Amino acid sequence: MSLHLDARQRAMLQEMGVTIWAPAQVSAAPAPVNDAARSQRTAAEPPTPAPAVAAAGGDTAATPRAVREQRAAAPGGAPAPRPPAPQDGSPTPALVLHAAQALYPTADPAQTPAGLGAGWLVVAESLSPTEPLAGDAGRLLDNMLRAMQLHRHPRVFLAALERPHAGNPTDALEIAPALNEMVATVRPAMVLVLGHVAARAALGRTEPLGRLRAELHQLAGCPAIVTYDPAFLLRSQGNKGAAWADLCRALALVHATTVHP
Q1: For residue 221, which of 25, 171, 202, 253 sits 20 to 30 Å off, Cα-Cα?
Q2: Residue 4's beta-bridge partner residues?
C-alpha cells in the first residue's frame, strides 16, 4: 500500500525520528587487528562495565522512569508521585478509563481521505486525559496520527487510561469489559492500543509487548493493533521505526477492508 506522503507528513515523520525510503547507512568495517596487538590493547584498557539489563518497559534497570510532565498537585500541595511502569509478571497498576473523546472533531468529513474507514479508536495511558495532545508525548501522538492523515478524520477517538492519585480505583484487568462496550458503541475500523499498560488493560494479557505487537487482536469484533506508546518512544528513539511499521500495518488492514470489504 502506497501512503503518498506529502512534504508536511514527511516532516512529521522526520520529527518522530522515522526515515522513509532512505537507504540504511552501512558503517565501514574496522581494520583487522592481529592477535599480538589485540592482546596489548586489551591489557592496557580498563575493563568495560556490563550494560544494565533492559526492563520490560524499555528503561534499563539502573534508570528510573522518566517524568514526562508535572502531575497535578495532591491535596497536601505536593505533586503526587507516579508509580513506575509494570515489569513482566508484576501486578498491573490500577487505572481509570475515561470516556472516549474525539481528537479532531472539526475535521471535515468531505475532506477525509478514502481508505481510512468509518473511524479509529486509540487506547493509551495519558497524564492529561482532558488535554491528550499536550506535552511532549501528546505532540508525538499528534504527529503519529497526522502522518497517517487521521487528523483529517472527524471520528478519531481516544480512550484515555489514567492512574488515579488515591481512592478505590478500578483494577486494570476490570477495564476490559468497559472498553469492549466502548468499542461496540464507537464501532471503529481499527483500534490502536499504545503501550504495555494499555495492552494489559485492554486485552487482559501479560505477554511482552513484542509478542502482542506481532498479533492481530479483536476487541468487540473490531481489529486491534498493539504498538509502542509515545512516552516510551521519547525515551527509546530507536523503536520509532518499528512503531511506524505497526501503524502502516493498521492502515493497510483498514484500507484493504474499505476497498475490498
Answers
A1: 171
A2: none
